Amino acid sequence: MCGRYVADASIDDLAAEFDAIAAGTVADLMPSYNVAPTDRVPVVLERTDEPPERTRQLHAARWGLIPSWAEDPGGAATMINARIETVADKPAFRGPVARRRCVLPARGYYEWQRTGRAGRPYFIHPKRGLLAMAGVFEWWRDPSVPPGAPERWVLSASVLTTEPVPGLAHIHDRMPVLLSTEDIPDWLDRRNEDTASLLGLARTAAARVGATLETRPVGPEVGNVRNNHAGLLAEAVPLQPTLEG
User: Can you give the pLDDT at residue 146?
Assistant: First the structure.
């Protein structure tokens, strides 16, 4: 967790919801009902140009953090998540969690409950509105792109995860760190580098928001990244027992 999620809100709606300015190539993003690792996704972050001025912006980022010191982006698919228990200690995440925090908006996320050899997918979502998944971001300079080209700098992000609330523990042993509207300003504030306090805030928020989530089983089609349509969110019809005799 979290390996798939839904980001179907329009850029205009996201800008209004998170009081952010659309920036960069975010306007090119299309709604996705099956976001997968390395996909481009919307993220909310703050830029500080002239202190104390802060601007909240909506950007497109690659899902899967690329450390600034990486030689290539090959390992990004394995860095879509960062455990909140160790994020401040890992070299790739230590700097981002102190100074480059973001929010990844989502309609909800998918998780697979292990049942024998197969897994049963669930869609986990709020009763209404969007989820604000706490994340970290990084800028990576692509050495293969000429200096001055806009695509030389690649923005990437990871979702923080934590232990699940009791109501979700039967599905999976991890869940995303979720923030409420009131928590977002503190999480995004780049002037605050008190990592321990911020992670404490995030843990408390995740427990509070996670307790309000709803779940429903969905069909196995979501397991294939080529499937990407609103029908993936439909509740799966339970199998009926076969009567003999």
Answer: 85
Contact 165, 207 (CB under 8 A): yes
Q: What is the dihedral of CA 172, 177, 181, 184, to 10 degrees?
A: -170
Query: Please, what's the b/e burial string for 214-223 (b: 16 or more CB within 10 A of its CB; e: otherwise)?
Result: ebeebeebbb
Contact 157, 135 (CB under 8 A): yes
Residue of 2, 46, 102, 138 marked catalytic: 2
111 labelled catalytic: yes
- The C-alpha atoms of residue 98 and residue 83 are separated, in whole angstroms, by 15
| Token pair belonging to 231 | 């029908």
What digits encode the pLDDT tens for the residues 51-98?
Answer: 566 799 999 999 999 999 998 888 878 899 999 999 999 999 999 999
Distance CA 149, CA 159 (A): 28
Please give the backbone phi and psi of residue 209, each rounded to the nearest 5 degrees, phi first.
-70, -40
Q: Write the pLDDT tens digit of every residue in 146-201.
A: 888 888 899 999 999 999 999 999 999 999 999 999 999 999 999 999 999 999 99
Pairing of strands 81-83, 153-162: parallel
Cα 210 to Cα 178: distance, rounded to the nearest angstrom: 7
Give yes or no for a contact between 113 and 34, defined as CB atoms under 8 angstroms apart: no
Q: Which of 46, 111, 151, 244 is catalytic?
A: 111
Is 102 known to be catalytic? no
CB half-sphere exposure, 230, CA atoms < 13 A = 4
